[in-house]
Amino acid sequence: MMTPGVKALGDEIESRVDVGDRFAGLFATRPAPAAESAGAAGTAPITLSAHVATPGGIDTLEASLPPGAESYPALTPRLGAAFWYEREIHDTFGVVPEGHPRLAPLVRPGSPETPGDRALPRHVTGYGMFTIPHGPVRSGVLESIEYLVETPGEAIPHLNMRVFYKHRGVQDAFAGMTPAKAVLLAERTEGVASVAHALAFSHAIEQIAGCEPPTTAQLVRVLHAELERIANHLDVAVRLADAAGLAVATARFALHKERVMRLVSRLCGSRFGRGVVVPGGISAAPLLPPAQLRAELDRLAKPIAADAAALMATSSFLDRLRGTGPLTPERARQHGALGPIGKAAGFADDARLVRPYDAYRALAVPPGRSHVAGDALARLRVRWEEVDQSFRLLRQVADDLSERAPDLYSVTCEPPTGRAVGWAEAPQGEVLYDVSIEAGRVTRCHPRSASFHNLVLMHEVFTSDILTDFPFIEASFGLSVAGVAL
Amino acid sequence: MSIWVLRGLRDGVVTTRWPARPDDYADTWRGPARPLPAAALSPDPAAALSSDPAVALSSDPEAALEALCPTGAITAEHGGNVRVDQGKCILCGHCVAERPDLFAWSQGANGPGAAALTRNQLIVPELPETDEAVEAARARLRARTAALRRSVHVRHVDAGSDGSEEWEIQALLGPVYDIHRLGVFFTASPRHADVLLVTGAGARGMTVPLRTTYDGMPDPKVVIAVGTDAVSGGLLSESDMTTGGIAATVPVDIWLAGSPPSPFGIINALLVAVGKLDPTPARPAAPSTSTTGSRGGRRSR
Questions:
Q1: Residue B19 falls within a domain, yes or no?
Q2: Cβ of A384: how many Cβ atoms within 10 Å?
Q3: pLDDT tens digits for range A275-289
Q4: Residue B127 structural domain
Q5: Final residue belonging to a domain, choices B107, B129, B146
Q6: B4/A190 CB distance under 8 A
Q7: Fewest CB atoms within 10 A around its CB: which of A4, A104, B152, B219?
């Protein structure tokens, strides 16, 4: 069925991307309060909403399908980055994007009890080709995801991912919550980036209400966001060192990560910075005085930098990362790759710099160096630079906090009705929240994590790599499955 | 490589000796909310004078109190006891912030409610019938795990977590917690596992993989529900896509609240699971006047 609305939407996104904007997401809504299950031809028309990131903010473009339409011309053939987004739309509403290359279940299991069909999808055929199903229960303490590795033995010509196993229905659970409760769910949408998700959600609420958190609250938000970034990057270092069998390096970075998490818990009681960010500000003052915070930061920064330098001088380690899992700058730009994955391939769109929020507007965020290699090594280099940058920001925050007289920690922020997009730069990259509110309750909340946008790129980075490179590539992406399957 | 030898020696021994020795971080850990010992909804006008208008103006103080909790963990009987189901507590702190006269944080990774042997044991103050049920559960567990004490192999399954519980379990393998010192090891194969650590709210898509893993483990086996999500589903208990906790799929032996629980809490649960720690906290008499967290009087054997 031809739908001019959708075609025009595709044209608009394409022309925006051509002039340098970034495609940031696509999702569908059905205005009825409860979305009909797949297949049931609901009478309410489906609306497609696309997010496009510009230097100043995030624009929302929309197109409505005709009432009763069960298909529309897919955007994926002209806009590769929509690949997973359209699969999610198909999963959720059952509408068919015509011309989409592969509409297998992505985020929702096929039926409640037996997810998907048991037959393994095959994409590459030939002599000696076989599929290694890896997951959803994998060796080690990892989140549930299934990788289907198609291989003739060593090379990986194709990789399939099934992320639906741990789909929890987060998006639907937001409906009906008050903002004060919904921010708690936002923190638990992608637990390792709790602060960033709480920030993105709160920014949306604050934008609807037109309120501005007090300066102290903005500083404390940056404080927790940057500590979260350091902890996540250290976690990637732990996993990479572990994959390379460097026992001492693994233990060292695990020690640093633990120390960072303990500092977070001494500041707010939670090791993940939960309960700090609320719409309108923060919930309470940090439990550590700024002078003590400053001393703790200094105690952390030096040994982390020294161990990072030692790691980046360990040639047996670097050999495993150099040239591993490369993403070309061209693909990074086309896809709009987020966070360290994009930065490592020359595509840097850091929300803290380009679309600053909270205290980032006042703080001097040092711009990162530019990289083009796009491999696992470049991704790790970006992370170390970000850790360094985070410590510099944190010192500024600690100094600013010590100079400030105690003031309010939050302002009233209870908007009755409206819709807005909020964003924040998580350790994994930009997090978006598209939130609608009616009568003081969330009617619809669509979180889009950096993990969702970036994980699909795993398909493309195995060009010259073999099975033993898999843990390095997965770790170097540094994503969380919880943020993908929602 | 020699640089790493020297770096490994740099900080000396950083490993905790908990639970054999006290550990400040474990003992001061902020656990789920609990009602203060004297917490009962008094009919006097104190509640009506509460600073919070929602509480003060409400004609129904019980409902106002229960509405403080986003997951419905608080129950208030008319003019009677206020109870917190710590198995539903996500540690948001709303109740502690709004009614510090009634609620406080529990303290310590081995505090009351940590590593409960029955689901009801997570309700504080305890329900009247809890003691006998706990005693029976302990006897059953002890009979099964008598052989496991010296070497325990653990398998983890994520049944729809938010990712944070995995970080806390991974921390056990790091230098600070070093679970190996306690004779606990992680294993990739369910065939080698004695203990199953399950995280997450019980995603429907993980029902079959979780059950398959459980069935693949040899007897005797112990299941630990790690975190409030695994115990009750937390904020996602009502979601169609979860089973509201993992107990719908596998039988749970140890219930561990927390969002997420601390690594010390997970060690505590593991040691209780295999009978290395006595899981009975020395509970104070119910109407105690003490306002500090009551700590378990447990010792490592």
A1: no
A2: 17
A3: 999 999 999 889 999
A4: 119-273
A5: B107
A6: no
A7: B219
A 40-59 residues inside an 8 A Cβ radius of B: none
The 3-state DSSP class for residue A446 equals strand
Gap from B293 CA to chain A (nearest CA, Å): 15
Compute φ and ψ for B75, nearest 5 degrees.
-125, 135
Say whether both B265 and B156 belong to one domain: yes
Domain boundary among B74, B107, B140: B107
Q: How far apart are the first and last CA of chain B?
A: 40
Distance from CA of B248 to the nearest CA of A (A): 12
A75-107 burial, b at 16+ Cβ within 10 Å, e below that, comes to: bbeebebbbbbbbbbbbbbbbbbeebeeeebbb
Q: Please, are residues B206 and A164 in contact by the beta-carbon 8 Å criterion?
A: no
* Three-state DSSP state, A437: strand
- Do B47 and B171 belong to one domain? no
Residue B292 in any domain: the answer is: no
Residues of A in contact with B204 (CB under 8 A): 109, 112-113, 115, 167
Which tokens sit at A137?
């229960």
Q: Give per-residue pLDDT as tens, A228-273.
A: 999 999 999 999 999 999 999 999 999 999 999 999 999 999 999 9
Token pair 């993989």 is found at B209
Same domain, B101 and B123: no
> How high is the pLDDT of residue A66?
84
| Residues B126 and B242 both lie in one domain | yes
Instruction: From residue B28, give the alpha-carbon distance in Å to each of A52, A255, B24, B90, B249.
Output: 46, 20, 6, 18, 34
Q: Tell how far CA B26 is from the center of its chain.
A: 14
Residues composing chain B: 301
Written as one letter, the residue type at A339 is: G
The model carries a pTM of 0.91
Does the CB of B6 have a partner CB in chain A at under 8 Å? no
Q: What angle do CA A14, A16, A20 make, to 5 degrees?
A: 115
Contact residues, chain B, for A271 at CB < 8 Å: 168, 260, 262
> Does any CB of chain A come closer than 8 Å to the CB of residue B161?
yes
Q: Which of residues 37-96 of B touch A (CB under 8 A)?
A: 70, 90-94
Residues B35 and B76 in one domain: yes
Is position B291 within any domain?
A: no
Asked if A158 has any chain B CB less than 8 Å from its own CB, the reply is no
Mean pLDDT for chain A overall: 89
The ipTM of this complex is: 0.91
CATH code for the domain of B172: 3.40.50.12280
Q: Is residue B280 part of a domain?
A: no
pLDDT at B89: 92
- Considering only the beta carbons, identify the residue of B190, B207, B239 that sits closest to A173: B239
Taking CB atoms and an 8 Å limit, are B206 and A275 in contact across chains? Answer: no
Q: Cβ contacts (< 8 Å) between A251 and chain B: which residues? A: 8, 174-175
Query: Any chain B CB within 8 A of the CB of A190?
Result: yes
Q: Percentage of chain A with pLDDT > 70?
A: 94
Any residues with CB less than 8 A from the CB of B22 and at least 6 apart, and which?
A: none
- In this prediction, residues B161-166 reach a mean pLDDT of 94
Taking the C-alpha atoms of residue A324 and residue A39, their distance in angstroms, rounded to an integer, is 42
CB < 8 Å to A427, chain B: none
Chain A CB contacts of B206 under 8 Å are 136, 144, 165-166
Residues B128, B86 within the same domain = no
Q: Which helix (H) or strand (E) holds A442?
A: strand A441-448
Say which CATH number the domain at B79 has. Answer: 3.30.70
What total of structural domains would you count in chain B?
2
Name the residue among B257, B279, B273, B280 with its Cα closest to residue B30: B257
